[in-house]
Specification:
6 helices
Length: 401
């Protein structure tokens, strides 16, 4: 196919190139005056001179190119015509063979074609349901046309005089029509079956697509919530470390930390692993007083986001700072929270921060703050927390020692 196309292109180029060269040479032959005149004196005294016109060298070239261009164009046209005739003969022969192969229903070749159509129409491993339905639709149309043709022939036989040949022909037509009716029923049954398979396949693909989108949405929401929790935790750690460093400078004590890097961050802590917040514990302490050693612990719920978007309140992770007090543990519990009214859907992730502060057995303070003003509330809670600890276990200074 590629070689034939290249030959056609070459012949077209040669044809038009020959015509173009011939046209240019003809035009130059008219405009450029390719002749020269030579006057020859008369052999008779007083006679008229004879003028001879001869082609110049340029004129000869124009003429040669004109002839060559004409011959090239003529040769290309003849060759193209011959090739076109051969292609038409090949196409006609191929079409006749194909028509004969398809129309010969009684031959084995026809059985092979029908078997191939059945394979294409019924085997889902070969083609998809839409193509199989199209093949069966074409087959149904062909069967219907054949059946209608036989029915018309039977009607014509019925109005002719009764003869043995007509009776046999009518019986043969009736048998063929019955077979065509069976073929139509079977064809339509297969079409209905394939259509049902197509609908089931489309439903399955739609469900898979919906699941994929839901998973992508869940992952995106999980990442959003994780980033928001990281921001809140970093604010808590940063503020707490800053206050401890100020107290250390004021009292001459030293801040001890088991965080990999200071100031501490959530990402560089035991609270974070493989892009997720996990359960973990780190510590910060001020001086060597056991009561000024603070346990910092992260807690994670069993799911990173609620299974149902319609919920009242959900906290994916929390951070607690605790230390020993006279009446048990003192702590500050920070919970980033997705909070909504009943039936409301929240798409923006964390929207509130819940604080619970315990400074003694009798003192328990709760507070809920928006993402816009939680940082100030955390700073105030940490100051209250450390002030209560200093009240129970006064922090020693270098001067006191």
């Amino acid at each position: 196919m590629a070689d034939s196309t290249q030959v056609d292109t070459l012949l077209t180029v040669l044809k038009y190139a020959g015509l173009f060269v011939g046209g240019i040479c003809g035009f130059l032959g008219i405009v450029a005056n390719p002749h020269e005149e030579k006057r020859i004196p008369s052999p008779i005294i007083g006679g008229e001179e004879r003028v001879e016109r001869k082609l110049t060298v340029g004129g000869k070239r124009y003429l040669s190119l004109l002839v060559i261009g004409f011959l090239v164009a003529l040769g290309a046209q003849i060759t193209e015509g011959i090739k076109q005739k051969r292609d038409e003969v090949k196409t006609k022969t191929r079409d006749e063979e194909l028509a004969k192969k398809i129309s010969n229903e009684g031959s084995s070749s026809r059985d092979e074609i029908r078997g191939l159509r059945t394979e294409l129409a019924t085997n889902p491993a070969v083609v998809n349901p839409s193509v199989r339905l199209a093949i069966l639709g074409t087959e149904e149309k062909r069967i219907t046309e054949k059946r209608n043709a036989l029915d018309q022939q039977r009607q014509l036989i019925a109005i002719e005089p009764v003869s043995l040949n007509n009776l046999r022909l009518e019986r043969s037509n009736r048998t063929a029509i019955i077979q065509f009716e069976k073929d139509l029923v079977e064809n339509r049954r297969r079409q209905a079956e394939i259509e049902q398979q197509r609908i089931q396949e489309e439903d399955k693909q739609a469900q898979e697509l919906a699941q994929k989108k839901a998973q992508e949405s869940a992952l995106a929401k999980e990442k959003l919530v994780t980033d928001q929790c990281l921001s809140v935790f970093d604010d808590v750690l940063g503020s707490f470390y800053s206050i401890l460093m100020s107290l250390a400078k004021d009292t001459g004590n030293k801040v001890f930390s088991d965080f990999p890097k200071n100031p501490p961050t959530t990402v560089q802590s035991s609270f974070f692993n493989e892009g997720k917040i996990v359960r973990g514990t780190n510590s910060l302490s001020l001086g060597t007083n056991l009561y000024w050693s603070f346990d910092i612990r992260s807690q994670v719920t069993s799911q990173s986001s609620p299974s149902n978007q319609r919920f009242a309140s959900f906290s994916p992770a929390s951070l607690r700072i605790s230390c020993k007090g006279k009446d048990g543990l003192l702590f500050l519990h920070v919970s980033p929270t997705i909070s909504a009214s009943k039936g409301e859907v929240v798409e923006d992730g964390i929207n509130q921060v819940f604080l619970r502060l315990k400074t003694s057995n009798q003192a328990m303070t709760n507070g809920q703050y928006s993402m816009a003003n939680y940082a100030k509330a955390i700073d105030e809670a940490l100051r209250t927390f450390l002030s209560a600890q200093d009240e129970q276990f006064p922090l020693s200074t270098t001067a006191n020692r």
